[in-house]
Amino acid sequence: MPPRRINDSYMDVNSDDSDVSILDDDPGPRKAKGKGKAVDRGKDNGKSKTKEQPYAWEASYVRSWDTVQEDERGSLQGAVQDLIARGRRKRLLAPAAAIRRTIIRHLILLLDLSSSMMDRDMRPTRFDLTLQYAREFITEWFDQNPLGQIGVVGMRSGIGERIGEMSGNPQDVLKAISERHKLEPNGEPSLQNALEMARSSMSHLPTHSSREIIAVFGSLTTCDPGNIHDTLDECVKDRIRISLVALAAEMKICRELCDKTGGQFGVALNEGHFKDILFELIPPPAQRAVVRASGGTGANPAADLMMMGFPTRLPVTSPPALCVCHSELKSEGFLCPRCSAKICDVPTDCDICGLMIVSSPHLARSYHHLFPVKAYQPVMTLDGTANPSSGCHACAILFKEMAAAAADGMSPLGRYRCPECTHDFCGDCDVFVHDVVHCCPGCGK
User: Fold this and answer.
1) What is the C-alpha separation between 191 and 216, in angstroms, rounded?
2) pLDDT single digits (tens) 133-148
3) What is d(CA 113, CA 243) in angstroms, rounded to the nearest whole number?
4) What is the per-residue pLDDT across 90-116, written as a single tens digit (0 to 9) for each?
5) Could you give the CA distance from residue 167 to residue 154 in angstroms, rounded to a whole number?
6) pLDDT score recorded for residue 85
7) Is the pLDDT of residue 359 over 90?
8) Using CA atoms, how far apart are residues 127 and 113, in angstroms rounded to an integer?
9) Please, are residues 306 and 332 in contact by the beta-carbon 8 Å criterion?
10) Burial 199-208 (b: 16+ CB within 10 A, else e)
11) Stretch 59-73: mean pLDDT, rounded?
């Protein structure tokens, strides 16, 4: 119900703490405490003037169209090309050589559930936006890291709260953060308690897997029971990599947590930048070198062989049997190749014999991080090219004959050439090959 207007003052009729009475005979102006126009009065200290803020429904509009720049012909094609060029330049800056990475990852996602997450500087609120990006992050993370596992820990009321157990099934992780009413922000966060809970959850993990913590922190304070630097030293000792995305401002302790553990730190400027720096943490990080005790240079750790098993998939028509993970009668499932125990999903560790059970598609999807596709080079001119192709090698769409002005990293001819097979591809196929297929259709590398 809209606020009622009484003699140029505003009153919320649904508010119990309003000092305006409907039966009041005094026609004088009153101060509003409801949902009308909020007025900041700074007359007590004499240092600020009266500042009138807009209505809440007026402030909800964001002029996103102001950020789009049209060209001289009124087209938005230039803005789209700039976005593609930004992604291409970022890919060209990536190392072309193979880097040793850990494909079996274990990640704890720390979510700030303090009262500061209800701020509306990010629409609709920091809390709702964080939950939305967390769901998208988990889905994309499991798509690129199918052999990994994720657990969720919340920070509110000065304690660390376990929201979801570490699991390799994305549906279980998404279900843990699906009920919004159970994650309502309250109180102050405790970064130390959350880190201790995450560290204890990864203490039993093997050495061949990575231990990572990604925190989304929206507060400017942390309510810790002890010295957080002791927790930091323990994380460094356990080789836990901590990355943090700050929604408010940079804090020294947050920066120190990331720098000493080899993680990444970033402060979100807006909603789009928040998603960008969060999704940059999806690819597996490069494995750090081990410093020798003698004080010499860092050396790569020895490659350890690990045993994996490829299970047998059971059809729907198979007779029901008890699974070892949930103790439920199910027809579908997988059989462990070592002990023939029935499990529901892969990848997982067999609860009977402890064998790591994976499928070949999962292993293949994790492999492309180790040997990424080389970046295609933009073709600036066809001079010196013998018999150039008239269409894209992948989709067979004809290239445009006329050249246009292109941004840095973009080809004016719309051609992008593989350095291995020297085939030309269009811009859409270039993005699709590097982001989805992870294999060049021309040379198979």
Assistant:
1) 11
2) 999 999 999 988 888 8
3) 18
4) 666 566 556 677 788 999 999 999 999
5) 16
6) 66
7) no
8) 7
9) no
10) bebbeebeee
11) 59
The amino acid at residue 341 is A
Any idea how long the chain is? 445
- Residue type at 41? R
How far is residue 131's CA from residue 154's CA, in Å, rounded to a whole number?
12
Residue identified by tokens 């304070």 is: 221
pTM of the model: 0.72
Q: Which two tokens stand for residue 309?
A: 């098993």
Token pair of 125 as six digits: 């609120």
